[in-house]
Amino acid sequence: MFCIFRLYNMAEPLERECAVCTNDFTTPKILPCGHLLCRECVISWIDSKCAAGCPLCRCPIVQQSDGSSSDTVDALPTDFVMEALVESARVLSKDHLCCVCEDVRADFICMQCQVMLCTTCKKAHKKLPVSRSHDVESVSTVTPERLAASRPALCADHGDKHAEFFCSEHRLAVCSACKSTKHKVCLETNYLDDEIKSVQNSLTDITKNLVEAEQKLEQAIGQLTSRLQEVDVSEQEDMAQVDKVCNCLYKLVEDVCNKLKDKCRKQHLKIRKSLCDVKTGFSNRLGKVTSHRHIVTRAVAVSPRPALIHMTQALTDRVNSLDLSTDLLGDKWEKPLSSVECCKEVVRRIEDELLMLKQEKTEAKLVSQPPVLVFHDNCGTNIRLTNGNRTAEKTELNMIGDGVVVSRDPMLANVLYEVRVDAGKNRYKKLSLGVTRISPAHLTVKEWSEDLKDSVIIMPGHIFHQRKRVPTPLTKELGRLKVGSRVGVLVTSSNELHLYINGQDLGVAANNVTQPWFAVFDIGSLVSKVTALPTSLRT
User: Fold this and answer.
1) What pLDDT was estimated at residue 500?
2) What residues contact residue 494 under an 8 Å CB cut-off, 6+ apart?
3) Assign residue 417 a region: left if phi > 0, alpha if psi is -120 to 50, beta otherwise?
4) pLDDT value of position 201
5) d(Cα 163, Cα 152) in Å, to the nearest integer?
6) Rounded Cα distance, 340 and 456, in Å
7) pLDDT computed for residue 4 by the predictor
8) Which phi and psi angles does 25 have, rounded to 5°?
9) 142, 390, 394, 441: most buried, per Cβ within 10 A?
10) What does residue 128 show for φ and ψ, rounded to 5 degrees?
11) Is the overall model pTM greater than 0.85, yes or no?
């Protein structure tokens, strides 16, 4: 079993140290996360913290039902490979003194006996019959990994005899004597070399599985990293789009604001000019009236004379010729009331711009990446949806009716919604389709087939629209569909319903079909399976 040490990676000195006590591992325990800690360090770590996790990665350490930290740690597997590496490193780190001479420097080590030897003792060690076949190597060339891998398998009961067998029932390596006595009744006692080969094959398979899992996880992490980068780029693009739209709106508002101000300025300028003209006329009239008042006042102050009689007549005629109207402000000025209507016009124009921007964005999205037509979950009792709600399949092929599937979202104008016939009972399949205003969550087969007011049904040979059955040769091909045929409907921006078969527009099936509508497909009794195809924008 000790041959499995050769599969262990070369452990650096720091890798043989516990992360808690920073000493060489003592009974290293494997935590659920894969990190190694000394047994006593794990116990003290659990006792010192409530719901303690791994001190390196914080992953939880599973507690036993009784809550005993020692039981929890003992239930964890021991890394015997690391334990052997630590012991081998400890042997190599001791003073290199010959184990026989004790005061002579040792330059060699027996890989099987794990003892240091000087040059003289090495020669003697190689001559002894019991150790003649042992590998004696220079201490300077031996690593802890090689020394651990060269340890002989000793009997678990004797300790000084080589183990030749492995008891699977007791999980022990035993010698031939123990096999014939203590483990005589054990059912599975195999040769140790065969057990080691089996373990090596198992470890090789485990390593292969772990490498594959590691590669898949790294690939998934790489894909997620790419997705995160795409999200960042998408966010920046959306922010730029928002800025662009807002800039358009700001410019629109600014233009309308300037036009409104110019309009108001012109209106008030006209009124101001009119008032100024009236004011100038009144000022001129005031000057004439004031001048004549002075003349009349001066005449009154003079004593009566014959000349006054003649002057009074002249003044009377002059004053009578003056405009002395009392209703001078008959045409009163009123403030224009057009501002409210102008503001409403601004709002309407902004709303129109927003609708245009939304339509452009929707059309651009459809052109670059058409959305997939997805069926609604409420599709009848004998319909099963698969493949992310893209495929509808009848579960009872002989059952007539109750085979209706409907789009999850309302239809967009000038967008083709179509399905592909995947399976049916006969050579030629029969399919009905159309549009409905009925909400998918409340749609039933009865509503679809009877409430024709809110639905347009295209069937082989005729069309149901507004409760009327209209015969037409337009739909004759719906009764002769084959597996692989594509059938779809499209509502134009002018509210016309078109029928498509295999990508060909067969013409207008109905007029005055206004939004919102949902695409509906009745696979009937002859078609058993349809798949929704990606929608496409048609102009």
Assistant:
1) 93
2) none
3) beta
4) 83
5) 8
6) 44
7) 36
8) -60, 140
9) 394
10) -65, 135
11) no
